[in-house]
Amino acid sequence: MDVADWQRDAAGHPYLASGAAMTARAWGRFGLLLLDRGRWHGRQLVPGSSLAECGHGSAANPGYGLGVWLNAPDPTRPPPPGVQRVGPRDRLIQAPDLPHDLWMAAGTGGQRLYLLPSQHLVVVRFGHNTGPDYRDDVFLRTLLGR
């Protein structure tokens, strides 16, 4: 997978959460690596158990794993005592009718990488910025015919 460019901080460290510029094909390859639990062409490149952690939200934000947005389990439910919810509500995918194992990586310019392991599906959405009317759940329902 090629990364065309990395944005870096003042110390030269790459911004991991939003600094990679990649083609749609590279995003797709990354999605396939995630979908196959860290294997690429039969070779284990990343421990599957490490990648599985990406799919677990926290009490502070049940809709966000390690680097990916999740199909949030009822984010309106109050958090445990002493926990304050964090994260933008507009990125939460709240769609109980969509696959529970849905992961989404969201790019700065409206790019999306959707992973639906139960459907054996990787979807890359590239286009202009999503704008205020774009909704991931509507796009996915249309894609899946729901």
Portion in helices: 10-25%
Computed over alpha carbons, the radius of gyration is 16 Å
Tally the helices: 3
Say how many strands there are. 8
Shape: globular
The H-level CATH homologous superfamily, spelled out, is DD-peptidase/beta-lactamase superfamily
Which spans of ≥5 residues are poorly predicted at pLDDT below 50? none
So, CATH architecture? 3-Layer(aba) Sandwich
Average pLDDT works out at: 80
Strand content: 15-25%
Strand order of the largest sheet: 5-6-7-8
Identify the CATH class.
Answer: Alpha Beta
End-to-end separation: 32 Å
Question: How many separate domains make up the residues?
Answer: 1
Kindly report the CATH topology: Beta-lactamase
Structural class designation: alpha+beta
User: Biggest sheet, open or closed, and with what strands and sense?
Assistant: 4 strands, antiparallel
Series of secondary-structure elements, N-terminal to C-terminal: EEHEEHEEEEH
How would the blueprint of this fold be written?
Elements lengths: L4 E2 L13 E2 L2 H12 L3 E2 L2 E2 L3 H5 L16 E2 L32 E4 L5 E5 L4 E5 L10 H9 L2
Antiparallel strand pairs: 1-2, 3-4, 5-6, 6-7, 7-8
